[in-house]
Amino acid sequence: MSTSGSENHTNYLNDGYGVKSWLLTTDHKRIAILYMISITLFFMIGGFFALVIRLTLLSPNGTLVSADTYNKMFTMHGVTMIFFFLIPSIPAVLGNFLVPMMIGARDLAFPKLNLLSWYIYVLGGIFTLSAMVLGGVDTGWTFYTPLSSGYSHTNVVPTVIGVFIVGFSSILTGLNFIVTIHKMRAPGLTWFRLPLFIWAHYATSVIQVLGTPVIAVTLALVGFERITGVGIFDPNIGGDPILFQHLFWFYSHPAVYIMVLPSMGIVSEVVTCFSQRKLFGYRQMAFASMAIAVFGFLVWGHHMFVSGQSVYAGMAFSALSFLVAIPSAVKVFNWTATLYKGTIRFNTPMLYAFGFIGLFTIGGLTGIVLATLPVDVHVHDTYFVIAHFHYIMVGGAVMGYMAGLHFWWPKITGKLYPEGLAKFSALTLFVGFNLTFFPQFILGYLGMPRRYHIYPPEFQVLNVLSTAGASILGLGYIIPFFYFMWSLRKGKVAGNNPWNAKGLEWLTPSPPPTFNFDKTPVVTEEAYAYPEEDLAGG
Amino acid sequence: MTGHTISRNRYFLIFAALIVLLVLTISMAYVDLGPFNIIIALTIAIIKAVLVILYFMHVRYSSRVTWVFVSAGFFWLLIMFTLTMSDIVTRFSF
Ligand code: HEM
Ligand SMILES: [Cu+2]
């Protein structure tokens, strides 16, 4: 029954073909596709910068690019990957597509605002890209003052204008989700029946709305000081450079949870579906998402232990940082407990979800190591930090995005991706990832600083390993790109619910009709109500 | 939207109050009260912000959820100030 007619029904994809029908659409599903294309573009640009970085580090004396160019490479890598890829990735693509569908709504609360957010994103992107084309920027993605506000001779102003602008697209997405989740849930869909993907996006939206304005103002102040010479952050003219770091990290630590919380939501959906189990400790999971959003705002000083912050504040921030680990660990334990006695299927989304759980755990635990004040004095600004956050952001957040893309690809496009090839590339990605970033933990612990294009020769073996890993990792991203494209034409027709999953989004045809549901669904059961009788005999 | 409308007079009243507070801020800047200058200036600023939020932004007549979000915004600002000050006021005193 599920496959009948899925190919030819009118759906959001064949409801108008013209360019205008896409560029002026207010359909959350089409806007999600617009975002998907744009962030993929930025992922490729960011990937190119990463390639240059890794190739330079093949040899200890930095023969490929000059020191100045190298500085620009890691800066532009960070700026693109964080502000233009990872922050919008899951919320603006999968969240946009799925939040209304999962709660049984026809669209988001403010469809035009949703389209506006994409245009704002594009505008911000144009600014930042032109800054790159016009010669680049070299301050690091962190824009530390007084380098950024006074000394750097590169295109700081257009870059921060771009980041400033793109922040508003993030705020609008968050605002839209908050209102939608409050106001547009289907009858019977109470807060504690919501899928955890929705809770995760709710928590993420709160961070976006409360945090992003602060980075916007802070970067505006950097531009202001640079242009007018009024002292805000530069100590020569009466400013306080550490104030910049407070304001920057007030947003940017919570921002790391903007990147990882939505992935956690995806993992909850995938793990329950592919083990056909209810989620262990549903309420704890919902509260843990909210707790992460709140605690995430109390820890930012752990980035500033050695930057001249008072030691007393350092001690307080160190202690507070340990708090965040609690809700994160609750999540890891609950996913694992969900698997217990489950009927586990090792499809590609599940492989990525397993990847997430393992790699996020390593990333989180090394975060605890870094949050320990005296240890951080040793490893701050070394490759240990680089390895830590790549384990969480690439091993965690991006793997979660890949899990979600594979899981919902049949829903989004109506077609199945080739399972065998997808499993192979998931494994490639996992191997490549670890080979790239594990050596960096060792390098950092041995004292190799980040952000230099040369290093002592004894570090070469580990750096070559890392570059080799990066090429395998790159392959792991390129293969999915091609089979996803291929599947659009040649993939098997997916049907409404190829994974036998729970959740309202699986009730409508794939691809969904323009208004998602023919009639508003009524919810009568908890989330993840997978039948479990068959276990009782066990 | 709650159907409640605020009378035009009320708006002018709030506007007048804001102007009075502005004059107060400026004149206080000429009186040296030591550390109390900053306290008074901030108090006046907060009163002004609250007036704008309650009346010009219609929060006073809005739903409970709106109140929750407005308070959250304030609370977050407080977090930012408190933890930043935890560094700044203890920085040079070993
Ligand atoms: C268990 C929770 C976590 C703790 C306790 C933690 C702790 C830390 C600490 C102490 C640092 C500073 C190290 C230094 O510069 O010396 C750091 C850096 C970083 N962490 Fe985490 N972290 C956690 C989770 C995360 C998550 C979830 C993400 C991303 C999704 C993340 C991304 C980053 C980034 C990007 C940096 C480096 C920023 C930079 O200087 O460029 N962390 N982390
Ligand atoms: Cu942090």
Overview of this protein structure:
The complex is a heterodimer of chains A (538) and B (94). Chain A contains 16 helices and no strands. With 538 residues, chain A is an all-alpha fold. Chain A has one domain: Up-down Bundle (Cytochrome C Oxidase, Chain A). In chain A, helix 2 (28-56) runs parallel beside helix 4 (111-133), helix 3 (67-102) packs across helix 8 and helix 4 packs antiparallel against helix 6. In chain A, 54% of the residues are buried. Mean pLDDT of chain A is 94; it is low at 1-6. Chain B is an all-alpha fold and 94 residues long. The relative contact order of chain B is 0.09. Chain B has 2 domains: 1-62; 63-94. Helices cover 71% and strands 0% of the residues of chain B. The model of chain B has no long low-confidence stretch (mean pLDDT 88). Chain B has helices spanning 8-28, 36-56, 64-88. In chain B, helix 1 (8-28) packs antiparallel against helix 2 (36-56). Chain A binds chain B through residues 178, 182, 206, 210, 214, 240, 242-243, 246-247, 250, 297-298, 300-301, 304, 308-313, 316-317, and chain B through 65, 69, 72-73, 76, 79-80, 83-84, 86-88, 90-92, 94. Copper (II) ion binds next to helix 8 of chain A.
Task: List the main descriptive attributes of the protein structure presented here.
heterodimer; A: 538 residues; mainly alpha; Cytochrome C Oxidase, Chain A; 16 helices; globular; B: 94 residues; 3 helices; binds protoporphyrin IX containing FE; binds copper (II) ion
CATH architectural group of chain A = Up-down Bundle
Largest sheet of chain A, described in full? none
CATH top level label of chain A: Mainly Alpha
CA radius of gyration of chain B is 17 Å
Quote the distance from N terminus to C terminus of chain A: 31 Å
> Mean of residue pLDDT of chain A?
94
Brief sketch in words of this structure:
The complex is a heterodimer of chains A (about 550) and B (about 90). Chain A is an all-alpha fold and about 550 residues long. Chain A contains 16 helices and no strands.
